[in-house]
Amino acid sequence: MARIRIKRLESELFKLISTTISFKLRDNNLTMVTVTGVRLSNDLSYLRIYFSHFDETKTEDVLRSLKKSGGFIKNEIAKAKFMRKIPELIFEYDKLEENARDLDKIFAKIQAEEKGKNDH
User: Do the beta carbons of residue 21 and residue 31 sit within 8 Å?
Assistant: First the structure.
């Protein structure tokens, strides 16, 4: 499958899934969920959906709610009619923001240590 077509499908799926989670699902665990990306397999049979949530302590609850809502999301993809075969959905927590915060802490610590060395 041409990677250009897959990228186009990923873009459409990203918009559709983001809208569905934000506006059509009525689960309290999904109120502040952001879809950060989607990745479609080359054979179009699997779709990884990356998400983030403002409260990292509830990640497991959010993941459970997303998996429970998977059938509804698949139905929305089917209604859009831009794919013949609906892919299997795989939800993954996007650790990018968490990793960025950890890096910021490390850089701040290094900067504080450098400043301490320069003061002496």
Answer: no
Domain 3-95 has CATH 3.30.300.20: yes
CA distance 9 to 61: 28
SS3 (DSSP) at 71: helix
As a whole number of angstroms, the distance between CA 50 and CA 76 comes to 18
DSSP string, 30-61: GTTEEEEEEEE-TTSSEEEEEEEES-GGGHHH
pLDDT one-digit tens code per residue, 47-56: 999 999 888 7
When pLDDT is cut at 50, 70 and 90, the band that residue 1 belongs to is low
